[in-house]
Amino acid sequence: MALIQASVEINAPLDKVWNIVSDIDSEPKFWKGTKAVRNISKEGNTIQREVTIAFKDSKCMQTVTVYPKEKVHAQFTKGVIDGTKTVTITPVGEKTKVEAEWDIKLTGMMGMFTGMIKKHIQSGTEQALQAIKEEAER
Description:
The chain has three helices and seven strands; from the N terminus they run βααββββββα. The chain is α+β, with helices and mostly antiparallel strands. A seven-stranded antiparallel β-sheet has the order 1-7-6-5-4-3-2.
């Protein structure tokens, strides 16, 4: 498995940052590796969805659980990626810390490329957190 971690401190209150992070339909706006999302079902704070990722326009299935004003946890359930992506927010005085953690591997024959894509996901995650920061600090 590849473990990818990144964080950013944002000069904005938790509620404002949470509104951006928890709007999972807007994920492609911030996460460049996510090309499209299509929600299939929603039950409480759990969403089943199909995600089209930039890696060969592959489609993955995810179960996304939203923990209000705390974190968004995505479990990849089918497709080229196996594992999780979790985005956590924490108040730090007047600021808000956003942390992203991936614990993933590529499935099947693609597994041998997990190490190669790790740096791409790391870079994309850092860019996404920066974009979230810019949006929240407007």
